[in-house]
Structures are given as C-alpha cells and as structure tokens.
C-alpha cells in the first residue's frame, strides 16, 4: 500500500527503562502518607492520648505518699529511721565480735561462739526466746483472711525487726509454709482457725507502729472484715520449737584462713 502524499507518521518514541533511583522514588511517593485532614486529626489524638497516659502514670506514682497526712508521713519516716538505727547497731555489734575473735583469747572466742550459737538457735527456732514484743490477735468471723494475708503480716513484722515469731502453737522460721485449708490456714502442717494470734519478740513500739501504718496489714485486714488488735509487752515468751532439718543439697563454704 502506497503512502499518501503529504502525510507522514511520527516515529514511535521508546521510553527508556526506569533506573533503580527512579524506581525507589516512585515507591517512596506511593508509600508517603498523604497530608490529609484525617491523618492530622489522628496524629493529634495520638499525641493527646500519650500525654494523658504519662500524666496518669505520674499521678499514680505520686499518689501513694501525697495522699497521706503529715502525721502519717512522720510515722513512716520514724519507722525507717528506727530500722536504720537498728541495722547500724547490729553492724557495730558484729564488727566488735569479729575484732574480739581475731584479737582475743581462746576463752573470749569460745564465749562469743556460744553467744552466736544461741542467737542462731533463736533465729532457727530450735531454742525458746524471751523478751519485749507485741501480740497481734486477728478476729476473722467471715473467714476471709487467707494464707497470703497472714504471710504479709509476718513479713511486715520481720521488716520491723521481729527476731522470733510464733503464730498460735507454730514457731515460724525462714522455711515455714502457709497454706489455705478450708476455713483455716495450715502452718507447716498445723491447722489454725480464727482468731489468729501472732507473738513477736523485738522492739515493741517499732513493730506496733509498723502494724498500723497506713496502707499496711491492719488496713488490709479491716478491708476483709477482720479485726486486728495489737498489745505491747515488755516480757513475752515463745516456747514453740522447730526441728532442725539437715540440708539435702546446701553445704557450708570453708572459711579461708588468713595468710601469715
């Protein structure tokens, strides 16, 4: 077929293949978020939500102490100060005993060893104990006090410096177990039912204050419908004993002898 005179077709223009840079620019343009009004509103909501969460967390962290009265804060500070003083005194006593053992005679070393053995016997529950302390009675008519709650009471007593504790007829030591059992609590296999009586030997005023600290165990017990009563005494006796169990796995580490 002959071409018509005066009519010419333009040659086809072949577009060069896209380079790698061109491909990445196109992909970025597609993935780039569009600056629409909806996106801006969503970003503003996210910003406000983050600010609200941060403010709530900060207020929650500060509320614990800021909500307390000045007298409550003074009581907390006194308890912390007394605990620190007790630990400092114990550290000085141990340091003095160590110096006597290193520099003293055999008689002094034997006497110190016996005193240390007696102290360990009290802590391990293999010896009776006597001294000042408190008695805490918990009336629980609704049987709402559980083993974890009673364990919390024990931990607060220990934090306040209790050196020997007896709950009902059971001596409480580091390995003592607490288990819920129907309308009562098993302590190392001994079934206890309300009212629960905790006897603790230590600094009586410090332990009594710790039991009534705001947000502490007494407040928890009242929230469960139980009634705690604390009595201080200058002469308590704990007679219940624990049988010392031989460790199955733990072995003492030999004390290194000082080089001459």
UniProtKB/TrEMBL annotation:
Pfam families: DUF881 (PF05949). The chain crosses the membrane at residues 35-54. Keywords: Membrane, Transmembrane, Transmembrane helix. Signal peptide: none annotated. Residues 1-10 have a biased composition (Basic and acidic residues). InterPro entries: DUF881. Residues 1-21 are annotated as: Disordered. One of its GO terms (cellular component) is plasma membrane. It comes from the Bacteria. Belongs to the UPF0749 family. This is Uncharacterized protein YlxW (UPF0749 family). It comes from Oryzihumus leptocrescens. The lineage of its organism: Bacteria, Bacillati, Actinomycetota, Actinomycetes, Micrococcales.
